[in-house]
Design brief:
Elements lengths: L13 H10 L49 H13 L23 E5 L2 H8 L4 H9 L3 E5 L33 H4 L5 H4 L7 E2 L3 E3 L5 E3 L5 E5 L4 E5 L4 E4 L2 E11 L5 E2 L6 E8 L5 E10 L4 H8 L9 E2 L16 E7 L7 E8 L3 E3 L1 H10 L16 E3 L1
Parallel strand pairs: 3-10, 4-17, 12-15, 12-16
Antiparallel strand pairs: 1-2, 5-8, 6-7, 6-13, 7-9, 8-9, 9-11, 11-12, 14-15, 14-17
Helix pairs in contact: 1-2, 3-4
């Protein structure tokens, strides 16, 4: 059996003590299985290279009574390792030659069984005899695993679908796509009483005249991104078919959305009314190139510089100036001509156009060269017209 080299004096490092242990023929064995609570245990055993000696000083026949015996070097080694590595202070009675070291593993440490040869290769000292001794001992290896950093599901980048385009008169948001842009626009595609239509084959009857009760009043102008709209002060209304509809606003389209027996017009103004139950009635006044229309010029003079910002006009506006002198009309049931294309709208299209100057048409065309919905199928709807 090789002799144990003298131990270094003072506070030796763990590495130096382990190396000394190896030179003495000891083997450091790693391995107790991790506990169920997530604590990984590792045990290191240092077998003695000589018969175990008493841990307390004993008197020998040759020694004087009371003389102290020098401590066993292996006992010192066990004490140092216990101090450095947090081992139990007292040896296991069942294994007096072993030093058991218990430490708490980091959560990122994974315990995997390994072969005795792999353990020996990792921990054995340089000497061949120590390597053979280490390879013969069963062992488990505590391997440090790099923690895998997983991105939380909530932090994952969602590849959301691009937003649907806004409705428009051309491009991806044009009239053919209105019904698919939003669920509330579905009627634009599925409705059976849509507007505008080409008005033809009307039945001539004695239609009750529309009673216009329009009053001059304050107004504001807004460019809403689709047309120029004029919001009027309360007080103006129409009466037709026994109902009274209050005038809410009027706006313009270029070209006119309606056609009469296939004939197009330069522009149209739609006067939108609503009754107390929310039903809508629209009076359409066709505009064709001719002399200037004073009321339209009043609107153009008060155009706002920014879209979707209403501008309160300083003067008054009289909606009667939009109407033709001769007030016979066509009537049919249809819809709004812009999304959501709500049906159940009472339409009254004045038969006589009103003149508007080329310069006034050009002002609107500068803003909206084309803002008319295409003609919709009539689908056998009844159209009536004044005699």
């Amino acid at each position: 059996m090789p002799a144990l080299p003298p131990l270094p004096r003072g506070r030796a490092s763990v590495l130096a003590l382990a190396l000394l242990c190896g030179l003495a023929g000891g083997v450091v064995r790693a391995g107790e299985a991790a506990s169920a609570t997530g604590t990984a245990a590792a045990s290191a055993t240092v077998p003695a290279t000589a018969p175990a000696k008493a841990t307390k000083a004993e008197a020998s026949p040759e020694s004087p009574i009371g003389a102290r015996v020098a401590p066993d070097p292996m006992e010192r080694l066990r004490a140092r390792l216990a101090q450095r590595l947090g081992a139990m202070s007292a040896p296991d009675p069942a294994h007096p030659d072993e030093l058991r070291i218990v430490s708490r593993a980091h959560p990122s440490m994974a315990v995997e069984p390994a072969s005795a040869a792999a353990a020996a290769a990792a921990l054995a000292p340089a000497s061949a005899s120590a390597s053979a001794s280490a390879s013969a001992a069963p062992a488990q290896v505590v391997r440090a695993m790099h923690p895998v950093r997983r991105r939380p599901a909530s932090a994952a980048v969602a590849h959301a679908a691009p937003p649907a385009p806004a409705w428009d008169y051309a491009g991806p948001g044009g009239p053919d796509a209105w019904g698919r842009l939003k669920p509330e626009f579905a009627t634009c595609a599925s409705g059976t009483r849509q507007s505008p239509i080409d008005i033809r084959d009307g039945i001539k009857v004695e239609l009750a005249p529309i009673r216009f009760d329009y009053q001059p009043g304050a107004f504001d102008v807004i460019d809403d991104g689709h047309t120029v709209q004029v919001n009027v002060a309360p007080g103006s209304a129409i009466e037709v078919l026994g109902r009274r509809y209050a005038l809410v606003q009027f706006h313009f389209h270029r070209p006119a959305e309606e056609r009469i027996d296939g004939k197009p017009f330069d522009m149209v103004v739609h006067l939108v009314h609503r009754d107390s139950e929310g039903r809508i009635a629209i009076v359409a006044v066709l505009l064709e190139r001719g002399s200037a229309l004073k009321v339209v010029q009043n609107v153009w003079n008060n155009l706002p510089l920014e879209q979707r910002v209403a501008l309160a006009a300083p003067g008054m506006l009289n909606p009667n100036e939009l109407l033709p002198t001769e007030r016979s009309y066509y009537t049919y049931m249809g819809s709004r001509t812009t999304p959501p294309c709500t049906e159940g709208v009472l339409w009254m299209v004045m038969k006589t156009p009103v003149p508007i100057s080329a310069e006034q048409i050009a002002v609107f065309a500068h803003l909206y060269p084309m803002n008319a919905r295409p003609i919709q199928p009539a689908r056998g709807r009844l159209i009536k017209e004044s005699n």
